Amino acid sequence: MNEMTATPAMPAQSMAADCPLCVAPAEAPLWDDGFCRVIAVDDADHPGFCRVILNRHVREMSDLAEAEQMRLMRVVFAVEKVLRQCTDADKINLASFGNMVAHVHWHVIPRWRDDRRFPEAVWAAALRPTAPARKALTRERLRAAIINELGDDLREPRP
């Protein structure tokens, strides 16, 4: 089991000892407002792949208050919008399962018709051995675009 470290964004009382999303992340988030955070997923086949993770341990979206549901989805939709602007993806997939990690989080995944698994899920077996090289999307560019869309802090809605 991993050591858990409470952070300002993830106070100890809201963490679950066996949840990998509750453990202090090794990577710095692209964006974090204390309520949720956006991280970049290192996936060469899907550059720009992000996760939006609630900063406390909650198993289901319906366990959140309606205002919290809306706030989280606003971040998910903002990340989707950023990926549409910053990539030439044919489609952006939004997914929330919780089967492997029962902690509210959303996958926001750029997809291309010629990616290795399209049209199947990114976790499915590859249908093609390779995919064309994609234009690099740097962490800095992605972070700047997310901050531009959401602001430095989402506690106050942007006009």
From TrEMBL:
Instruction: Keyword check for Hydrolase, yes or no.
Output: yes
Return the protein name.
Answer: Diadenosine tetraphosphate (Ap4A) HIT family hydrolase
Q: Does the keyword Mitochondrion apply?
A: no
Q: Where is this motif: Histidine triad motif?
A: 103-107
Q: Which Pfam families match?
A: HIT (PF01230)
HIT domain: residues covered: 47-118
Q: Which InterPro entries does the record match to this protein?
A: HIT-like, HIT-like_sf, HIT_Hint
Which GO MF terms does the UniProt record name? Answer: hydrolase activity
Gene3D superfamilies registered for this protein in UniProt: HIT-like
Q: Which organism is it from?
A: Rhodocyclus tenuis (Rhodospirillum tenue)
Keyword list (alphabetical) reads: Hydrolase
